[in-house]
Amino acid sequence: MIAVVQFGGSNCDRDAVRALSDLGFEAERVWHEDPLPEETTGIVLPGGFSYGDYLRGGAMAARSPIMKSVREAAAEGVPVLGVCNGAQIGCESGLTPGAFTTNASARFQCEHVYLRVENADTRWTAAYEEGEVIELPIAHGEGRFELDADGYEELEADDRILFRYCDEDGTVTDEANPNGSLGNVAGILGDSESIAVLMPHPERASLPQLGNTDGRGVLAGFEG
Amino acid sequence: MTTYTATVTVRLKRGVLDPEAETTKRALERLGFELDALRFTERYEVDLDAADADEAEARADEMAERLLANPTIHDYEVAVVEA
Question: Which of A84, A92, A140, A142 is catalytic?
């Protein structure tokens, strides 16, 4: 069962459950004050505005008690996917390196973006080809990826960058970077391949009725 | 035990883009002010009881390390005075 952790202020938890269910997964929402169910085989940290984005996006949720269980599960190899606010929570909790902070535009960016698949050799990207361009929606005010130079070098060397913002043809340019992210980074892996975070919303592009199913491949990563 | 006020000042590391400060700077310029640069800091004032100033500072330092600042993008400093 995939646990979609619902914090106060999460708002993509239902979307995640619906999209995962459509893919054939058993998924349900788990309130952050409840324990993680024993039968948890995967964890989604969904998008939204947990704790009203107080202090920094994800800062409060990252220190909530359920995150201790999430970190323990992650350490045991349970796959964890953080989307948008969930990506901020992932970085704030140390599951993934770096930080997602205020967009360079200082504006909330709500639009469709193109992403280039940088590494197709992970459970989260196996449905795609390396270099393939997919389209996903973003909706965030704090999505600019920041990391110190050494950390970024390590991330690149370890091939832990999953997606970069690009133009329709797959070229990574400043113009295609919606938030000023370092290296146009949109999604990364944690210390282990089973942990991934990304700012764009695969769950919002996973049902045919929505006109775009490019995000299904990311969610299919829970199959392992 | 003595009551202290620990002031934790959190600021972006040098070189980290600060879009809110940039936007504020432009707004000041629109109002006719001349300025070279503008930086934001966040300041937290924490009242706490401690045996001495060193203990108060150590505790405030840990608060900054574990929550108030994000070490990826922030530097911080702690100053302690008797309340």
Answer: A84
Beta-carbon separation of A55 and B67 below 8 A: yes
Report CB contact under 8 Å: B73, A106: no
The verdict on whether A140 is a catalytic residue reads no
Tell which CATH architecture fits domain A2-223.
3-Layer(aba) Sandwich (3.40)
Mind listing the pLDDT tens digit for each residue in B20-74?
999 999 999 999 999 999 998 999 999 999 999 999 999 999 999 999 999 999 9
Range of the domain at B16: 2-82
**Is A84 a known active-site residue?**
yes
Instruction: Tell me how far apart the alpha carbons of residues A32 and A68 are, in angstroms, rounded to a whole number.
Output: 11
**Residues A11-26 pLDDT 10s:** 999 999 999 999 999 9
Whether A203 sits among the annotated catalytic residues: the reply is yes
DSSP A191: S
State whether A147 and B17 contact (CB < 8 Å): no
CA distances, A9 to each of A47, A52, A55, A198 (Å): 9, 6, 14, 19
